[in-house]
Every structure is written in C-alpha cells, then in structure tokens.
Amino acid sequence: MRRVAIAGIGYTKIGELWERSLRDLFVEAALKAMDDAGVDKVEALYVGNMMSGSLQEQEHLGALLASHIGRPGIMATKVEAACASGGMSLHQAYLAVASGLYDMVIAGGVEKMTDKLTPDVTLSLAMADDREYVVYSGATFVGLNALIYRYYMHKFDVKQEDIASFAVYMHENACNTPYAQYRNPIKLEDILRSPFIADPIHLLECAPISDGAAALVITTLDRAKKLTDTPVEIIASSAATDYLSIHERDDILTLRATVVASKEAYGQAKLEPKDIDLLEVHDAFTILGVLALEDLGFAKKGEGYLLVREGEIARDGKIPVNTMGGLKARGHPVGATGIFQVIDATLQLRGEAGKNQISKAETALLQSTGGVGGTVVIHILKRRD
Amino acid sequence: MSVPRYWRGIKYHYRLIGSECLSCGKRYYPPRKVCPICHSRNLRDVKLPERGKVLTFTVIRVPPRGYEKYAPYVIAIVELIDGTRVLAQLTDIEPEEVNIGIEVEAVLRKICENGEEGIIQYGIKFRPVFT
Hints:
- The complex is a heterodimer.
- By secondary structure, chain A is α/β, with parallel strands linked by helices.
- In chain A, 38% of the residues lie in helices and 19% in strands.
- In chain A, strand 5 and strand 6 form a beta hairpin.
- In chain A, helix 4 (85-99) packs across helix 15.
- Chain B has one domain.
- Chain B has helices spanning 3-8, 10-15; strands spanning 17-21, 27-28, 43-47, 51-60, 73-80, 85-90, 103-113, 120-128.
- The longest helix of chain B is centred in the first third of the chain and has 6 residues, at 3-8.
- The N and C termini of chain B lie far apart (37 Å).
- At the A-B interface, helix 5, helix 6 and strand 5 of A face strand 4, strand 5 and strand 6 of B.
C-alpha cells in the first residue's frame, strides 16, 4: 500500500443555488481542485452523490461529469452510500491510489437538492432507510433520528437544551466560513422556540436542504509533496456498516458502524482519541453530534452531551468539533458533505482557516455517516510539511 | 408503490409475519433469509405477537410525499412481548397522549393512497390497549 495525500481542494458555496445545476456545481469544484493542485491530468473520478436519480432523474453521473470537466475517457463512477456518499467517494479514491492502480484521481461529491419540493426531498432522504418496511409506515429521516433523540433523553435523563445547544456552536463557527449556508449566530432559545419537524427535533436542530459540490485531488504522498507545500496525508481510511434500520439494532443509542470504523481507523493510524486535534462529525441532527462524540471515544456512552454543555466542542475547547460550522450551519449538500468535511479539516491543517483557525491543528478525524448509521466512513488526516 | 411490489409484501404487511432463526431462535421484522447473529440460512416465517409496548416515538409533522394529508402522525418503535421490535405508526391516539412504555396492539389500517388511480396501501399500525 502506498501513502496517500490530498494535493488540492475545490468547492462551491453551499446554499439554495437556484441558478446553478448539478453539473455546474460539480464542474466548478473539480476544476478548482485541479487548479489548486496544479494538475491537468487525472486518471479517475469518483462522484459522491445520493439522490440525483430521484431529484434530477439523472443517473450515470460518472460519465456525465467526466465529460463536463473536459476529461471524457477516464474511469469515472458515482459512489452512493446515502449521506456517507462523500466519505465513501474518498474511501474509493484512497484505495485506488494506495493500491497503485491510479496515481492521480479526483474524489468529489455533489448534491442538488432544491430542484424538487420539500415533500419529494423528504421522501428521497428517507430512501436511506428500508423503503418497504420503514419508510412504508410514513417515517421520515428526521423522524428516525427523533426516535433516537427521545430515547436518549429518557434513558440518560438528559435535558434537551444540552443536546440542542450543539447547533449554537455550529452557527457560531459558520459565521466566519465564507462558503457556509448560514452565517448567522443563533441562540438556544431560538432553537427551542423553532417548530418541531419530528418531535423532539426542532427545525433549528436539523441540517438544511442544500446545494453544493466539493472535490479533492488525491495522489501519492510523494507526488503531493512535489505539487504543494502543504500536503495533507490520509493516514487512515475505513468504513463499516450496521443494520439499516434502528429497530433491528439491540442498542439504538450506539452507532455501531462508527465504533467499528473508528476502531479500525485508530489502528491504521496508530493513534488514540487523545491524539486528535479536531473532529468533523456528521451532525445532520444535534443528537447525531452527541452520539458521535461517544461512539468515536471522546466521551462515555450517555455522557457526550457534557462536552456540549461545558463548551468543550468550541474552537478553544478540549476537542474542537466542526470548526467551520458542520452540517447544521456550513450546510449539508448530502453527497458532497463528506468531501466538505475534508475541505474544512484541510483548511485547518494547512493553516488557512482564517478567523476560525485553531492553534494546534495537525491531526483531524472525520466521520461521514449514511442513513442513521447504516454506513459510517472514517478518515484521519495529518499535516505533512 | 407498484402493484406487484405491493402484492409481494402483503403477507408480511397485513399479518405481521417475520422470520425466526431455527438455529439460534432470534426473530426479525422485516423477514430475512440469513441470520446476522449466527449466519444460519435456516429461517422460517413466524407470526409475531400482536401486543407490545412503545420503546420510543416521534410525531411526524413534515411528512414525505404521499403522506401529507395524514400529518401529524405518530411513528414508534414497538417492542413486542417476545422482544422483537417493529417500527410502525400508532393510531387511535392523539400525539400528546403517547408516552414511552404504553401498551399497544396491532391492527390493520390504511397506510396511504397512491394518487387517484394507484393502489391503496394497507398495513399494521398499533393502537393503545384498553384494559
């Protein structure tokens, strides 16, 4: 296995981008990544995307987007693992370069969610779970997370404010993120006053419906060192699955795929949680942020909310989390989200995070979650000067 | 949902039929062919008990396409008396009356319609047990 690194990054703004199509977004991100790396030739393209089939009635994104970035002929494919599509796209690119098959590839992601109305997007997102036996009942994706949320508060006797305030930190961080969807601060009272989407989840605890694309140029560490002064090495890349639906799991408060994939990643990197300087977790809903802190080994089960309550997830806290605003405020263009996590972390590791720059940023761990933890992809990144 | 896809699931949706592993005894809903616990392929259909209690629940206020006219409605994970868990809607109860731990029983109800010409879908919901 060869050592693999990120040589270039490119991304669009995230938001409701009414004037821009899926292909517009992806082309912008991919070309910026190639320019950032200073490369003209790539051999393969991985496109993380979940819902182009149902939202754009467009599949075969690999060939479509390879030709639109001006490189028809290269190996190209869509990678789908629900909301973990972006993380899984990078995992595939990592394997391709580590194996020696390709030297220069793009790992990207894109989602264009505002082409359909909310009920359609709600149904499309719910396709992350079992269509015939769970979505059939009328359950939504927010609703499935709400089942976990209520049970968590019940079992560990936790107040909602100690979970909901996760979103306050996300908005605070996103204020300084130029590409974020929501650059406004919010207060805990605003969250708790916002309407329920699926009780107990309030509107302001949910990641938004977003358009956006992001891309990375992935190559060997040796090549990356020649291309850039700030290569970021991928020192671990792992993925795991779980029962798709939460009612099939013995413990609905543990995302077992996070536990399994992170254990594998810590092993690959020969690191422990205490060695990680910053986290990017998949906070599609506030409760998922809290569960991630526990399942990644930063808090005991049932105590993740304490890190939120005590401010330890802030940029100057014990373990800075989602320093550019997370899914909640930076935005959640589903198939691109796992790649945006890499963008956020890479800016920190390169020292290019502007006002959000944290003092010690050498090692970052990223969690990309599909569905309610049916798939989890973990990456650990390290700065190499 | 298309007619053949709906028709294939009728037994499981109308009668609460799951699977039981003949090697380790674990039960599943929905049914499956391979036991994830012991990897046995020796599973059979089993009628699951119709009573259980609510493990956790939510109120769906922003429904998916096709379910708009029913919102708000309650979705729960029900733990049946044999320990098998099922995810389904609650019925015959207002959202504010639901609590974790309430006893419920399975009933066959309409789930949704597929437009004016499509199939009307039925399935299991759970209602409170009156004692």
